[in-house]
Amino acid sequence: MKPLPEMRLEAARPALDDRPLEKRVGLVALATDHTSEVDFRRMVASERIGVYVARIPYANPTTPENLRKMQPSLSAGAALILPEETLDAVCYSCTSASVVIGDAEIEQAIQATKPGVQVVTPPMAGVRGLNAFGVKRISILTPYTVETSRPMATYFAGHGFDIESFTCLGFEDDREMARIQPAALVELAHKVVHPQAEALFVSCTALRAALAVPGMEEAIGRPVVTSNQASAWNCLRLCGDETPRPEFGRLLTKPLAA
Predict the structure, then answer these.
(1) How confident is the model at residue 30 (pLDDT cuts 50, 70, 90)?
(2) What is the pTM of this model?
(3) Is domain 23-121+230-245 classified as CATH 3.40.50.12500?
(4) What is the CA radius of gyration of the chain?
(5) In this predicted model, what pLDDT tens digit does every residue of 163-190 receive, in sequence order?
(6) Domain 124-226 has CATH 3.40.50.12500
(7) pLDDT tens digit string along 187-221?
(8) Cβ-Cβ contacts under 8 Å for 104 (sequence gap 6 or more)
(9) CATH 3.40.50.12500 residue spans of the chain
(10) 3-state secondary structure of 120
């Protein structure tokens, strides 16, 4: 065997960039989540924006009680994303838990370890997305049970929307929700949207709904806002990315209101 060469330490260090990527988006996902991370890498990640993920414990079934149990893990989950470094936004990727726990409580928990970071929750991103279209009358589709869906209806009504129709599919396991085919969501959108609704909100970060948005919008002839699509849009705009991405629906062509 040839002798190993002498190790040589280079005296001059290479110049360092301020960051490997200009912008950083943190994603706090559920341990069982099949969809959020994939969607964020598809819609948010780029040569300019990095997406950094931490997962927190979660156990099915998807009930308000189990969703609420995630709250104590939020601070620790956020702390695991690039420790001691700043982020431009952090998204907690669970729509139903955000409604049960509350946007303000989630923001407080994440900012406890990431002070001052801009926090995004899927339902609040959904509200902002619907507001970007200037709509008031909406239909809502969720994969949840009736019990888990009730807080969602209260949330959107509390943000000033008239809910013309609300349809839930009765699933209790988010891993099964992730297996619903995007084509089935297009058919459901056409079936459940109310004639008087100006837009459709499709809830749940487990659903592969972002892939179905163009088909749903074509089927119902009005805007469709989904959990992951709206969260991705919100994070992109917070990072200063205004690039239109119509392939993910009309929302990705809209600015984020101040």
Answers:
(1) very high
(2) 0.95
(3) yes
(4) 20
(5) 999 999 999 999 999 999 999 999 999 9
(6) yes
(7) 999 999 999 999 999 999 999 999 999 999 999 99
(8) none
(9) 23-121+230-245, 124-226
(10) strand
